[in-house]
Amino acid sequence: MVPIANYKGAITNASPQENSQGDEVVTLQRLLTQRGYPVAGSGFFDMATDRAVRAFQSQNLDQHGQPLVVDGKVGDLTWWRLNHPKPLILAPSAVDYTKLPSQANANNGYHIRGARP
Fold first, then answer.
1. Average of pLDDT values for 23-31?
2. Residue environment code for 34-71, b if the CB has 16+ CB neighbours within 10 A, otherwise e
3. Of the candidates 64, 59, 71, which has an alpha carbon nearest to the alpha carbon of residue 32?
4. What letter would DSSP give residue 82?
5. pTM of the predicted structure, to 2 decimals
6. Crossing angle, helix 76-83 and helix 47-58, to 10 degrees?
7. What single-letter DSSP state applies at residue 12?
8. 53-66 pLDDT per residue, tens
9. For residue 91, is pLDDT > 70?
10. Which letter does DSSP use for residue 13 in this model?
11. Distance CA 30, CA 11 (A)
12. Neighbours of 20 (CB within 10 A)
């Protein structure tokens, strides 16, 4: 087995890339799946893992705000982003204008004189 980068980002001899295998690849596959790029945790850096890595790289930035290089290799910057996910931002729900509140609800339950019920 070829030594590869560990999940904390320290590079030993080579970065995970196609045809790598081992626990580090299982960790990579788990992190990719957690980040929304589902891939089987086989421990083999196969074509599916390569596609997931490239998709992840194409949609993420490094710690300096620069786009990751899309090369399918999991170097320092890709490991960093895998271990430092983007914050979850909840978007406000949209207003459904097709379902307006009733007149009573719009007035907090009070009937306004002259308003039609």
1. 94
2. ebebebeeebbbbebbbebbbbbbeebebeeeeebeee
3. 59
4. H
5. 0.63
6. 80
7. S
8. 999 999 999 999 99
9. yes
10. S
11. 18
12. 23
